[in-house]
From TrEMBL:
The keyword tRNA-binding does not apply. The lineage of its organism: Bacteria, Candidatus Roizmaniibacteriota. Signal peptide: none annotated. This is Hydroxyacid dehydrogenase. GO terms for molecular function: (S)-2-hydroxyglutarate dehydrogenase activity; D-lactate dehydrogenase (NAD+) activity; NAD binding; phosphoglycerate dehydrogenase activity. Residues 100-274 form the D-isomer specific 2-hydroxyacid dehydrogenase NAD-binding domain. Keywords: NAD, Oxidoreductase. Belongs to the D-isomer specific 2-hydroxyacid dehydrogenase family. It comes from Candidatus Roizmanbacteria bacterium CG_4_10_14_0_2_um_filter_39_13. It comes from the Bacteria. GO terms for biological process: L-serine biosynthetic process. PROSITE patterns: D_2_HYDROXYACID_DH_1, D_2_HYDROXYACID_DH_3. Residues 25-291 form the D-isomer specific 2-hydroxyacid dehydrogenase catalytic domain.
């Protein structure tokens, strides 16, 4: 089977063999002949649609090295007989750990103290932290990642409420959290963390109306998909939030130094790295190889 792996960085390349490219599908030279390519693997940096897949007339398998598939035109792939496989789990704990990295960097003033420290000032005054114990954490989405977050939150002694269209009653009993409606979660939570997939029903689920329901001084964390949050509504109401930690952004492919959220001191943004650890890179490569090997039979 002839395969090209797109969106491959230096770390992943250590584990993936064969034809690897650092660029996305959108960067290919369409004048080249790709008629012998049977399979490709991509990440969310590539958009797989009629235009980008057109140069691969005999493509049989598309592996996305992600959980989500919103960057793939699934209808087009079905029509063309292209089998699409995703990596369902490459270590949900990686994203859960990053949730708490974003959270604690704000609640314990990790970032806020650095300018003073670097200027030679060493004082706790003016940097009152927020303890997590006893606070109410609202988890939006109780799939693999959401449940890993809940496990960590339990270790911090937090009260946990959750929203999901599909309720995991077994996990609810085992991990000791309560399912509520989204608006109720917004009203009751001291901290809200998003772990829902991007669907038409979840796009802008955090909108002006939901934000209005939230407590003053609420903390918002998003490591799922940027489009879950209405950026305009968030920007207009940013003073309501004590801290906003974002690993994903709406329209992040067009990110620039002029992004409206960059001017706010209560916002920290990381470049979609929640998944990216030594453990996950190895797992992603192993799963990609396994999926291709299984397809080859």
């Amino acid at each position: 089977m002839n395969i090209i792996h797109f969106d491959v960085d230096a770390e992943l390349q250590k584990h993936l063999k064969g034809n690897t490219r650092p660029t996305s599908l959108q960067a290919i030279d369409a004048s080249q002949d790709y008629s012998n390519i049977d399979a490709i693997s991509i990440k969310s940096g590539s958009t797989a649609d009629q235009e980008s897949l057109g140069p691969f007339p005999h493509l049989k398998l598309l592996v996305t090295r992600t959980v989500g598939t919103d960057h793939i035109d699934m209808d087009y792939c079905k029509v063309k007989g292209i089998e699409v496989k995703n990596i369902v789990d490459y270590g949900a704990f990686n994203i859960a750990e990053h949730v708490f990295a974003l959270l604690l960097s704000g609640t314990r003033n990790i970032l806020a103290t650095q300018p003073e420290i670097r200027s030679g000032t060493f004082t706790y005054k003016g940097h009152l932290g927020v303890a997590l114990k006893g606070k109410t954490l609202g988890v939006v989405g109780t799939g693999r990642i959401g449940l890993e977050v809940i496990k960590l939150a339990n270790a911090f002694g937090m009260t946990i409420i959750a929203y999901d269209v599909y309720k995991n009653e077994e996990a609810c009993q085992e991990l000791g959290y309560e399912y509520v409606e989204l608006e109720d979660l917004a009203k009751r939570s001291d901290i809200i963390t998003l772990h829902a997939p991007l669907l038409e029903s979840t796009r802008h689920m955090i909108n002006a109306s939901i934000i209005e329901s939230m407590k003053e001084g609420v903390i918002l964390i998003n490591t799922a998909r940027g489009e879950l949050i209405d950026t305009e509504a968030l920007t207009k109401n940013i003073e309501k939030f004590r801290w906003v930690g974002l690993d994903v952004l709406e329209g992040e492919k067009e990110f620039s130094k002029d992004h409206p959220l960059l001017k706010f001191e209560n916002v920290v943004i990381t470049p979609h790295i929640a998944f990216y650890s030594d453990a996950s890179v190895k797992k992603i490569a192993e799963e990609t190889i396994r999926i291709i090997g299984k397809y080859e039979g």
